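Lab meeting minutes (informal)
Scribe: AK
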Amino acid sequence: MNLLLSDPAFLSVAAAISGGGGYDSDAQAYITAVEAADGQALETAVKDAINAFVVGCKADGIWNAIKASCILAGARTLNGALVPLTGTAPTNYNFLSSDYNRKTGLKGDATTKYLDSNRAANADPTNDFHLSIYQTEVFTSGIGIIGQDNTGFRTAIYTSGSAIRTVKVALPGTNSVGFLGGSRSSSTSYEFRRLGTTSTITANSGAPSSSNIMVFRRDAAVSDGVNSRLSFYSIGESLDLALLDARVTTLINAFSTAIP
């Protein structure tokens, strides 16, 4: 079979061999940083899964839209899990090593434990924006999974719905394991994905503030957090939520097999 230089299959193979050790260069840089934070090497199967995720996102054309992200699983330690896949490292508020599980991620408490993503809500264009998380354990208390709240609008995924730079739009079904995400590429509507289905929500966008987006919490100024367990989050420009869902789900499932 002959491949054109522009074919996704060719680009995927080229990316896979561009990094040290046969890995994509971005995947290798992340793996190296995680191993340094952990103080020991990752299993080959874990590294393979990370590389496949990065290469796959690049082949899908969604990698460059992910501006701030952590894989909150896979690493051997909490420090390793807080190494950013892309963007700035989050600030940890009160998470302990005992809150972390390599296969299933980081467990919140709905009150004091949360992450500051250190990415401002206005870092991405008003109508070119996404948020996503992967929830491996549903909440039993709390409100805000990821987001930022400001007067008149919310940039958030809530336990009872979603609001991507608009007033809150209540949706059922967010208290379920798996991928949850919202993406806006229009001033009049946005997409929200849960339980493997993407819905279009009609809602006008609101101008974002400069406050940072929180993870495990609605806002740094309030205690509306969640006690969910999360294994991934991403923030950035708008993207195809179904493609990201497939890549993240495959990654987390691969960890379950690769990690003893």
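Next up, CB showed the second protein from the same session:
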Amino acid sequence: MSAKVLLLSTVGWPSVARFAAGFAHASCRIDALAPAGAAITASRYLSRWHRYSGWSPVAAMRAAIVRSQPDLLVCCDDRALAQLLSLYKIETGGSAIGELVLRSLGNPDAIPRLVCRSGFIAEAREESIRAPETVTVASRSGLDEAIASLGFPLVLKSDGSWGGEGVVIARNATEAAAGYERLRRTPSPLRSIARALKRRDVHFAREAMTPTSRQVSAQKYVAGAQAASAFAAWRGEVVGAIYYDILVADAAIGPPNVIRRVDCPQLEAATVKIARRFGLSGIHGLDFIRDADGAAHLIEINPRATQGSTLAFGPGRDLPAALANCLVSNAGIRPAIPSDVVAIFPREWRRDPLSPFLTSGYHDVPWDDPGVLLASLGLKPRRRSFQSTVLRERVDLPEKPTLSRFAGTFR
């Protein structure tokens, strides 16, 4: 007996394809809603691809769900989560789709509380979780009050932002004022259209046509190193989790390039409390700052699957397998990564092809999924057919080619 999982993605991130491998090894069939050209469309583990439309995203999502008839939905980016919530609001009277969203998220009505940065931190502090003071900034006078209360450096964040965007670290009043104005204002129509053309992303064009206001919060700055938890939850209980320190990140506030898995009671306690308070199901992530004394401060939540969620560290630490076990009995599991230090492919290699972490730790290259490997390198894999049953057997390459021959791609 197997379950069907529908991955929901509005971006082309290679990490989405890694979830396909994780769920496939856990005895699940995998469908995906994703844009054309996304790495997931090249995965050997994918049973069926449903094309995502940036012009009519909610309709495309609903059509994918109706065609796929999945047992579980997994949101792989914040935009997909927002669109799923929009669909949930449309579905009334206990519809099949409404019940599916409820099963997949646990408590969809709690998601807006997670997305509100200041409100989420306030609730975390009520649970006695160590977290920096965070306040809503509704005006320039409110910004002055936040500066007087929290001091510098000051972290400004806009609700609904993700991927490292929508965050400003201000070190003086001038930077704070400029950052606040940038975060709260919707980009001009001209700028949005220019970004749509440059990035080939229609979402920016939609933003130009339907501008929305943004709520900004100010958070007290905590000096230290980044840490995180990635966890799978079911009806408010954590069923699998990975806790890790971030050794190398993409800039000061970007996603991780190199991580070290750790056993950390602080991160574990905070994760369990958050999952229970909000009644969560699915895969989520928490971001922390570890100060000079090693104390972990919770700074925000990613209410969707994160990069760290893709890694497999064995029973209880393989999140797709942990979640699949809530759907079917005796779900399979991937072989455990043989090192606690992991260099994320292709992020760390792109940053430094000679990085010592590529050899001293485990380099997370998808050798078992050649199409995703090529797509991650920016190369175009052969177009896949989705008419046949997904292959499960291991792909044995004649030999692992050295990545150095591709290094020029990233210079």
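CB comment: Confidence is low (pLDDT under 50) at residues 387-402, 404-411.
No objections, moving on.
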